[in-house]
Structures are given as structure tokens and as C-alpha cells.
Amino acid sequence: MPPTKSAPRAPSIPESELVERFVRATGPGGQNVNKVATAVELRFDIAGSPTLSEPVRERLLARRDRRVTGEGVLVISAQRFRTQDRNRQDARERLAAFIAAGMVAPKKRVATRPTRGSVERRLGAKRERSTVKRGRGAQTWD
After folding, report:
1. Which of 21, 102, 110, 134 has the smallest count of CB within 10 Å of its CB?
2. CA-CA distance, 38 to 30, in Å (whole number)?
3. HEC letters along the chain
4. Vertex 48, ends 47 and 50: CA angle to 5°?
5. Average pLDDT per consecutive 10 residues, the chain (142 residues; last block may be shorter)
């Protein structure tokens, strides 16, 4: 069996670089949702983080993700679970997944040329379509 490549592990982010804020969750939940601040808003400054390498930082900032602000701060909101501790854990797992995705460098595209057969098939199909459309024009019946 050939060896499999495992996904690169995200670097461990120190606690000092994470900012957590606890807010009340939205949605159904009765009195619990009205009284307890279980939702977690986790902020991580991608642009100013000394932990991330430059290529990883550039890839993360280049992603078109609505969670990344204009200043380069990633904001993750976690409120899936009823407990604050589980939401904190969920937010950190999602942060790790986001950073791990940035660790993978995209493969370089190798430029290739279309085969002669594929070019001929394409041009032939265009010719056929052209004659069909030309035949739809106003007919002059002599």
C-alpha cells in the first residue's frame, strides 16, 4: 500500500494572540439563551501574527472569506452548542482548520496544448452549428 500524505498540522497559536469574547447566543433555547453568554467570538490577527510564516499569511489573507476583516483579522463566531466551554473548543477547532487550509500550497498549473484531434472536433462542431444557424435565415422561395 503506498504511503499517504497527511494534511499539514496547523502551528500552535499562543493564547496571547487570541481574543475571546462571550456573548449571548441567538435562536431557540428558552431561558438559557436569555441568561447565559454561551456564544464565543474568537478573533485572530492574521496580518500581525508572528507565529505564521509569510507564505501562509499571504495565502490566508488572499482567501475570499467573509470572516476575514479588511484589517486582516479572522473572526470566528461559535454558538452551536449549549455550553461556553464546548463553543470555545469548536471555535479553536475551526481556527485550526482554517490555518491548516492555508498551510497547503496550491499546485502549480502545468501549461498544456490541446491535441490536434480536439481542435479539429471543436472547429468542426462550430462549422456545423454555423450552417444550422445560417439555414434558419429568411428563405427566398423563387
Report:
1. 110
2. 13
3. CCCCCCCCCCCCCCHHHEEEEEECCCCCCCHHHHHCCCEEEEEEECCCCCCCCHHHHHHHHHCCCCCECCCCEEEEEECCCCCHHHHHHHHHHHHHHHHHHHHCCCCCCCCCCCCHHHHHHHHHHHHHHHHHHHHCCCCCCC
4. 115
5. 56 74 73 73 83 82 81 84 84 86 84 95 96 84 68
- What's the confidence (pLDDT) of residue 85? 85
CATH 3.30.160.20 fits 15-103, yes or no: yes
**Rounded Cα gap, residues 76 and 114, in angstroms:** 44
Taking each helix axis from N to C end, the angle separating 84-103 and 54-62, rounded to the nearest 10 degrees, works out to 110
In the chain, what are the domain boundaries?
A: 15-103
